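Input record (one chain):
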Amino acid sequence: MKITKIIEETKSISSNIKNAYIDFSKMTISLVAVVSDVIKNGKPVIGYGFNSNGRYGQGHLIRERFRPRLLEAKTETMLNEDKTNFDPQKMWDIMMKNEKPGGHGERSVAVGTIDMAIWDLVSKIEEKPLYQLLSEKYGNGNPNRDVFVYAAGGYYWPDQGIVGLTDEIKKYLDLGYSVVKKKIGGASLSEDCKRIEAVLKILGPNDRLAVDANGRFDLKTAIDYAKKLSNYNLFWYEEPGDPLDFELHKELGNHYSGSIATGENLFSMQDARNLIRYAGMRKDKDWLQFDCALSYGLVEYLNIIDMLKENDWDLSRCIPHGGHQMSLAIAAGLGLGGNESYPDLFQPYGGFPDEVRVSNSYITLPEINGIGFEGKSDLYSIMKNMTN
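The corresponding structure, as predicted from the sequence alone:
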């Protein structure tokens, strides 16, 4: 049992959308395949992974540092105790050899991308969906395959206008979402309020709207927005300021009684712990959005989960960023509160297996071994071409 090769391809997911901080005109991701010599159904078992949108592809780091460490390691150092499968923790330790602590910016994305592929591989070798494997290993053995998802959209498009925005949101409602999200901070406060009010007018009585500033505001602007947003009964107010400005988040809680969501741009257990310690996050109403694909992978996410439990946080307050199937599997297997979803954007990497439908912002995960990429035909066709 060994890893025969690790393939990385940098793929474009460019579009002409913007949030409050960046545009996506040159956005890329890394797509990775980890190929083993384990044969099932006459073919080698392959694990796949990719990083979340918003952070660029990490091909250079993968090829220069992390892939060589795995391929040069002795096979026995990667295997579980009974030598029947690979051990993600041991492989993570190999990737992180000779890496100093701290500095969690880009290498965390490279490692997280490979880590996703490793977990896909491991659960395929076990011939189980990843959510089942995680529930058996870290939970009660009974995953909840019904997962909450919300529709992330409402970006700033050129010449979109209010009608274009509301048409987009209507599409998400028609798909079965009852919670939708739009961007703020890329226009004036008054213009953003007009956009919010236009969306609220088309929502049904059981529908909710979340807003996302993508870390744009200083404290004064965050408070100015909070005063206006308090009139709207929003699902949450996301990333009001810089993700590492814990004092801003703590002070904002004194001015905004609704829910605040943040964490997608914190890439380690240590940074997540500092958020819990110093940012005034409220266990009964705020949301944590740590994304395993950006933060060293599921191995590190398990450390974050342990930290949250030590601090008496309910895991149902975790709704990861990224809109990928890896976090769906984690949510089902470990009892998170749900996952972000991109019905239209960043395709084919966002979304669900082909047969899955949304109902009242919930989906039911199918029984597909691994993460489930093989059930999404447009995505799997690209993945297959990597190794053909």
